[in-house]
Specification:
alpha/beta; Rossmann fold; 6-phosphogluconate dehydrogenase C-terminal fold; UDP-n-acetylglucosamine1-carboxyvinyl-transferase, Chain; 4 domains; 6-stranded parallel β-sheet; 4-stranded mixed β-sheet; disordered N terminus; binds shikimate-3-phosphate; aromatic amino acid biosynthesis; EC 2.5.1.19; Enolpyruvate_Tfrase_dom; transferase
Length: about 750
Amino acid sequence: MAEGMQKVDELLKVNKLLVVGLGLIGGSVALAARRAGFANHYLGVDLAYDERQGALSLGVVDQASASLAELAPDADLILLAVPVLAMEPVLAALKPHLKPTAVVTDVGSAKAVVLEAAKKVFNELPARLVLGHPIAGAEKSGVLASKVDLFVGRTVILTPTENNAAEAIGLVKQLWQACGAEVIEMDVKKHDQVLARTSHLPHLLAFSLVETLARKDERLEIFRYAAGGFRDFTRVAASDPVMWRDIFLANRDATLEALDEFMEGVERLKTAVESQDAEALVSSFTRAKSARDYFTALLNETGYQTMQTTTLNFITQPGAKTIKGTIRVPGDKSISHRSIMLGALAEGTTQVKGFLEGEDALATLQTFRDMGVLIEGPHNGQVTIHGVGMHGLKKPQGPLYLGNSGTTMRLLAGLLAAQPFDTELTGDASLSKRPMNRVADPLRLMGAEIATADQGRPPLKITGGKPLKGINYDLPMASAQVKSCLLLAGLWAEGETQVTEPAPTRDHTERMLKGFGYTVSQAGATVSLTGGGKLTATEIDIPADISSATFFMVAAAIMPGSDLTLEHVGINPTRDGVINILRLMGADLELSNQREVGGEPVADIRVRYAPLKGIAIPEDQVPLAIDEFPVLFIAAACAEGVTTLSGAEELRVKESDRIQVMADGLLDLGVECTVLDDGIQIIGKGEQAEVFGSAEIICHHDHRIAMSFAVAGLRASGNIHIKDCAVVNTSFPGFAELMNNVGGKLLVEQK
Ligand code: S3P
């Protein structure tokens, strides 16, 4: 059975399926239904002798006739695959021959006109006439062009009304599912509007462009010079003129509406060209490009939807020797998020270099596009953000989907609580389990209105237009996300917002706010700002992410003979716990070329292999290395003696429960460890060449779990199969390739 095809064994089997109109669509339905065993007999009616003969010789139908009177009385399900304007006479001809139990459906690409035709013939829409439209076709027509797979993976829109019997709708659905299609329902008006915009208008434009050029140049010489762009844009102008004439006559009103909108858009562009308005042109083209890229992502199932649709596994292989080279890992995730947020709210244009083109940061970028901000790029880490000012964001069209990104959700919650419009924030399976009350509770104290799902989980529904006031808030946990969320809300709050943290956490928000000209005060553990100011656009150079660099630091630290240099790594003192911890374990790390870039300290880090020893990790280092623990556990397994981590209960509410998930994987790989409430104890195997065995690892939508076990593979005796690693793209696109470039042996399996 072909992929996408539904099983129909358990469905009620139709005795006789009659196709009226033996063309490409009607023929393909009969072929597909026959392959799925949907009916016992296949009948066809067509006035054209050639189509009937073609249908019989291809085995599309068992019996063909020019007369409805001959075949309709016996039919159980009748599919009308005739041009939309022929529906009325065909329905009228069919009416006297229908048996009472028969179900009728159609394939017309405009629905209001068919509904009208049915009402004329029957006075009202009969309960057993269910209108539908398969979104599939080809430039070719005629029964000989029929394809058994034409509908596989395609969408069929049914437009039932309250007159329809549920049983009739169900049968029509089953027919299309048997053909491999996905069936959705829509009302008639919406169907005609959607199709006018996405199908009928582009056809009209293609016909028009080709004809306009042909008129100008009767000998058609001009087409010799036309290349791919012209070909792609005008492909559909080769479609059947008569069919399209009928569609425009049938879907007149919705097409005219779509055409008016389009002409307004063309007028705007014309004015921009006339007046040399470069900003208007680039803003229109960028919006179009990002919409087109989104469409491509939908078609290819890539983009920040990948994680839900593509299966990607890592398989580590024994035999890696040393880790060597000089590399730069992608840009810092935390700083990338903040660059988009502050750049969007600033006055003026912000230029960003080194932006992380990973799914999480892209989710933030898309969110601001959805709120009307013009953002160019990213191209090779460069992004240009045309800020809209503190009051310039627009209400997004629908819920904002944030993929796997907890940082986006928590920081945005603060920013959006202060906007005049309502918003809803949603995420993937991992994000949907993460606690959001840690931001919702203090935001409510500021005056925000936020609803969450059960136990403070996403989605977050934020009611706009609530005035906020500054608060003094003692963070119950060391969290930069919560601190940043409240500072962002504080930008619009009345008075001062003060946040006191129990231990230092990353301070990128504070540093970047200052970079955008906003006054932020720091007194001991308390950071504060006063609402009502403005941000001024700036330039941002994002360092390489120390959290991503850590996977390679540990790789070099555990592989004898390694010598690896990581360039331009952010070594902000609120993020450098991993350097301190690895040094305490005996790792050989050398920092050079230390400098400040755009308010953030950076350095090149050279790591040479040295034997590691187990340590008790100082608790003050925990918030400074919070994202690095999964791979530090791998280092601990390769160290001599016991490593103990405590005071790290926050690890349990990351993208996964990182204590439990890492412990499960370590145990499966033969490493002894004990789970503690707030940490873990790991018995290292020291100099032993092969520390890990072989196992299958489930990474629970957590990028850092996947990458950590990929590093473990370097010291494993067998293969480690790491399942569902597409999520690695959230923070580290190109991870596997880079690992292999420096000496790793990591196979990527895509399904
Ligand atoms: C982040 C803060 C940390 C960190 C996360 C990014 C940020 O989360 O784990 O990856 O960009 O502010 P918490 O604030 O929950 O500790």
